[in-house]
Amino acid sequence: MCAMHAIVSPDAARKRMSEVLAIVAMVLLLLYIADAALELLGNSRFLPLSVNDRGIIFGGGALALFIVSNVFIFMTRVISRLASTLLIAGGTIIGTTVTASAAIPDVKTPESVITIAILGYVIAIFGVFWMLRRKK
């Protein structure tokens, strides 16, 4: 049988899916932060979206994908080191950047900032939990 036609177990497929979701979430998050940083520095942004649309699509999308990646890990209990690491990094980045942006004096921040920061840190905590539960 050809390697292309090898049967993949459902657990392996879910593990791979959790990794893909975490990678896509991280890319969305980094694009969002880079665009926001350019705007904050006074340069033109590279995403042709309003601030609200950018936050909903890129920030909210990253947050949702990190949560779904967690769900895939929870469903299978097959824990990926890559997905866990990205959950830790992504959750920490979300929590820290949201908290830091709320501290900038001239930037208008929505009321949901604390909820988003807490969600980010919860994602990071789950990443640590999965990393500790991972079998060596």
- How would you name the oligomeric state of the polypeptide chains in this document? single chain
Q: How large a portion of the residues is in β-strands, by DSSP E?
A: under 5%
Number of helices: 4
The ordered H/E elements are: HHHH
Number of strands: 0
Major sheet size, sense and barrel closure: none
The end-to-end distance, rounded to whole angstroms, is 31 Å
Please tell me how large the radius of gyration is: 17 Å
Overall spatial form: elongated
Portion of residues within helices: over 70%
Annotation keywords:
single chain, 136 residues, mainly alpha, elongated
Please describe what this structure looks like:
The structure is a single chain. The chain is mainly α. The chain has helices at residues 10-40, 51-76, 81-103, 113-133.
What is this entry, summarized?
The chain is an all-alpha fold.
What is the fold's blueprint, element by element?
Layout: H1 10-40, H2 51-76, H3 81-103, H4 113-133
